[in-house]
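Exercise 7b. Backbone tokens:
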């Protein structure tokens, strides 16, 4: 049977402790008689020899129960030091009391010197390995083969101290902390874990150059968004690689590790605090309901599915026409939530029969409509597809929701629908108008105002030949729909509530500008920007999803919810910042090229249309 390495070390430590204890108290007795063995009183020596075996056995057993043979010495810290010292002192006190009561009173120096030497020998051996790995090995890197890289730590708080400690203890990296930056003047010219705090944020460029810093770690998880932006803007001018601790939750969960640090992304420089909503109330609303997400394989749709899946819906139905991303989110959700009642369907929102079959089969309580064509230049060259997929697809899905008694329908729109100058934006504005019209019909009960846009070819219906267009009205389809609508109206519900959610560019989504910039930088450039003055509103995927979920929870019907996304950001500034964060210099290492505005593209986007603040137009409700 194989014995683990730590158990071998533990047995060795037991023998060592026995020898150390015997030597410690003999040394106290020997010192008392001026290091002359023959001068030691025979009664004292006899008491020492008689009592020592019992004390050694009792001390080793006591040390075992105090876990002094189970520690990982390379990570031993202040808590271990206190526990080991207290255990050794407690054993010394017990030794003094018992030898006096059982044998005889010993010289006072025997108790004091023996206890102190025992403490030094017992505790010292356990910290010697950490001293060796941290001080000897880490301070003498192989300059020829693997020279150490100096790291600048931003933040002298708990997170920064933990990161420095890991850098000093780890033997798997060649990184050493070179200096600390903190804006608190009271910490300047002092040391944390042996590393000097050299100054504040304004001193970053100077000390980065003076000390030869190669990497900078931002370790202030509690920093406000604007402060983080200002500090990172200074850091990116140094040309050093930047990494950041993602959030305060890692500090509270003891997850502050160098491996947890992420490369600083351009979204860290936006300078806006994340939008926070009451997600608990939202998740209580979706719990136990059947949720349909159209376009569930896309960036927003897939994140919606992730958050919904984790909060106990009765059923989650994912509907998308693109099979690859849809299959990927299905695999992810089934692995993470094995008990989730999940249905993944392939189909088009333009197919009336398919979308009606989905509603008839699953009867969703809430619909999040994310399916749409969103690429502005592509839709300029294929306007018919934009109208068919966005407008007609939204109408058919909303119509199915209305006629099947869905509680709420949430349309995911865009800020490009405001004063649109392109086909995509105009189609999304039409989608918003469809939703508001549907909500008005739902509240008024004027079902007769809704046009029928369901023309299909089928094999045989009421004697029609194969391939002939079918007149659904003549075939009795309209009467069936009226009966279905009446059955919905007679139920105890207020009708379907239709709302729209409008936001700007989503960082990291499919087709967004940031991934494109990163690909161009990795390829060595150039980075292409359409215009030096073009600006956009930005938000993260979690912010977008939280807004969509909140709209689905608190809507009254007919609203257009708009996220207050702060100030717009220049795309040119984002591109140049991303180049700097990658360790290059814009226009020197990586060229920035202006290609001109693409078809249908505007220099800036707007949040609301002027003059539309009444319930008859846009409500303009914001989060």
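Sequence design result:
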């Amino acid at each position: 049977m194989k014995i683990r390495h730590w158990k071998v070390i533990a047995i060795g430590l037991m023998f060592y402790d026995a020898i150390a204890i015997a030597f410690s108290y003999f040394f106290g007795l020997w010192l008392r008689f001026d290091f002359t063995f023959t001068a030691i009183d025979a009664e004292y020596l006899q008491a020492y020899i008689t009592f020592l075996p019992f004390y050694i056995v009792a001390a080793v057993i006591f040390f075992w129960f105090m876990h002094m043979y189970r520690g990982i010495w390379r990570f031993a810290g202040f808590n271990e030091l206190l526990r080991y010292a207290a255990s050794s002192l407690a054993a010394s006190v017990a030794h003094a009391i018992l030898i006096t009561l059982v044998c005889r009173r010993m010289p006072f120096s025997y108790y004091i010197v023996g206890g102190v030497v025992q403490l030094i020998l017992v505790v010292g051996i356990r910290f010697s390995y950490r001293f060796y790995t941290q001080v000897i090995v880490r301070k003498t890197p192989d300059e020829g083969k693997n020279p150490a890289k100096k790291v600048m730590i931003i933040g002298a708080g708990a997170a920064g101290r933990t990161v420095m400690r890991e850098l000093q203890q780890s033997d798997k990296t060649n990184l050493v902390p070179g200096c600390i930056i903190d804006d608190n003047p009271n910490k300047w010219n002092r040391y944390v874990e042996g590393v000097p705090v050299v100054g504040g944020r304004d001193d970053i460029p100077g000390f980065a150059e003076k000390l030869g810093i190669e990497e900078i770690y931002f370790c202030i998880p509690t920093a406000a968004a604007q402060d983080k932006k200002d500090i990172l803007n200074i850091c990116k001018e140094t040309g050093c690689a930047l990494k950041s601790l993602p959030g305060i939750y890692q500090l509270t969960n003891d997850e502050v590790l160098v491996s947890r640090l992420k490369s600083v992304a351009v979204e860290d420089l936006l300078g806006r605090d994340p939008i926070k909503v009451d997600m608990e109330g939202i998740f209580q609303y979706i719990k136990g309901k059947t949720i349909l997400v159209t376009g569930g394989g896309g960036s927003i749709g897939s994140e919606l599915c992730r958050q919904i899946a984790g909060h106990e819906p009765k059923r989650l139905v994912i509907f998308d026409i693109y099979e690859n991303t849809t299959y990927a989110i299905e695999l992810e959700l089934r692995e993470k939530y094995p008990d989730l009642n999940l249905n993944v369907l392939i189909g088009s929102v333009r197919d009336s029969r398919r979308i009606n079959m989905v509603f008839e089969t699953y009867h969703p309580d809430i619909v999040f409509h994310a399916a749409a064509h969103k690429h502005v230049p592509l839709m300029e060259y294929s306007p018919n597809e934009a109208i068919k997929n966005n407008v007609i697809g939204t109408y058919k899905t909303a119509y199915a929701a209305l006629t099947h008694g869905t509680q709420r329908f949430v349309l995911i729109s865009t800020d490009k629908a405001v004063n649109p100058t392109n086909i995509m934006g105009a189609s999304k504005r039409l989608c918003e108008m469809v939703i508001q019209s549907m909500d008005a019909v739902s509240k008024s009960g004027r079902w007769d105002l809704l046009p029928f846009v369901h023309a299909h070819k089928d094999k045989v219906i009421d004697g029609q030949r194969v391939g002939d267009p079918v007149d659904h009205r003549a075939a009795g389809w309209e009467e069936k729909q009226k009966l279905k609508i009446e059955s919905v109206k007679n139920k105890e519900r207020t009708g379907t509530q239709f709302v729209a959610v409008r936001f700007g560019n989503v960082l990291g989504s499919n087709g967004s500008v940031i991934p494109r910039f990163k690909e161009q930088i990795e390829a060595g450039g150039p980075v292409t920007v359409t215009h030096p003055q073009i600006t956009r509103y930005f938000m993260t995927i979690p912010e977008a999803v939280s807004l969509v979920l909140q709209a689905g929870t608190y809507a009254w019907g007919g609203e257009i919810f708009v996220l207050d996304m702060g100030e717009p950001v220049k795309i040119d500034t984002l591109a140049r910042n991303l180049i700097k964060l990658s360790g290059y210099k814009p226009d020197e290492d990586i060229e920035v090229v202006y290609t001109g505005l693409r078809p249908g593209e505007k220099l800036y986007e707007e949040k609301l249309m002027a003059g539309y603040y009444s319930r008859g137009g846009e409500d303009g409700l914001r989060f």
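Instructor comment: The first strand starts at residue 149 and ends at 154. Residues 86 and 119 are 9 Å apart (CA to CA).
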